[in-house]
């Protein structure tokens, strides 16, 4: 793979190749490395610190133990708040400002590379901001196929029922007219001539009725049997 695009601003090819090999192994699906900036101190530095950026993340690399180990600080663009750099006599100091945690800085970055870093990182942060502000696409309601060919249904308004009339669905109940006691007319007395009836018959009917009720009470209390009840009842009724 050609590394020419990573050494266009004076980067050391050997250092770029070593850093590129390490970072490529950490790239995720659809992620591509776009730029690598190398530290350049006034004194000779065999393994300088570096800043590499991809379309998804930013990598801050620091070689330790004579190049046998590497410390990485890796941030997603969503975790970065801003980027700043300060030009000094020997190069620039680039500072990455995350939303949480301490700021991370690498000094002695050549000025040309620092400006390129600033430009690319600002563009990445702006893209993240635009993506977060884009509203979610509106979901159109699914219209059943049959509704596309059917005529629109017309709603028939419900009939207006006058306040003084009962609804048609409710039965009409006639209520008796209650006349106050003070205005009720007393009915005229009706004098009827009772038919004469022997006193003896009324006395006998009352006695028979009492006997039948008493007999029925005894039977209900189970004090007499069914046969006794029927026999006694027949005897009483024979007196009529």
Automatic annotation (TrEMBL):
It comes from the Bacteria. Residues 28-123 form the YokE-like PH domain. Residues 211-237 form the SHOCT domain. This is PH domain-containing protein.
């Amino acid at each position: 793979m050609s590394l020419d695009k990573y050494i266009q601003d004076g980067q050391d090819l050997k250092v770029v190749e070593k850093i590129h090999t390490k970072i490529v192994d950490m790239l995720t699906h659809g992620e591509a490395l776009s730029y690598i900036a190398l530290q350049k101190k006034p004194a000779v530095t065999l393994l300088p610190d570096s800043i590499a950026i991809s379309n998804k993340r930013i990598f801050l690399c620091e070689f330790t133990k004579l190049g046998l180990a590497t410390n990485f600080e890796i941030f997603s663009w969503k975790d970065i708040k801003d980027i700043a750099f300060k030009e000094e006599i020997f190069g620039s100091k680039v500072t990455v400002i995350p939303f949480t945690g301490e700021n991370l800085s690498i000094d002695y970055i050549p000025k040309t590379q620092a400006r390129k870093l600033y430009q690319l990182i600002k563009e990445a942060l702006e893209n993240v901001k635009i993506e977060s502000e884009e509203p979610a696409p509106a979901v159109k309601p699914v219209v059943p196929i049959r509704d596309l060919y059917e005529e629109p249904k017309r709603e028939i308004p419900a009939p207006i029922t006058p306040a003084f009339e009962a609804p048609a669905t409710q039965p009409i109940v006639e209520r008796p007219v209650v006349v106050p006691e003070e205005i009720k007319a007393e009915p005229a007395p009706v004098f009827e001539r009772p038919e004469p009836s022997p006193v003896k018959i009324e006395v006998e009917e009352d006695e028979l009725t009492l006997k039948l009720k008493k007999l029925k009470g005894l039977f209900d209390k189970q004090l007499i049997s069914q046969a006794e009840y029927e026999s006694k009842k027949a005897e009483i009724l024979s007196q009529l």
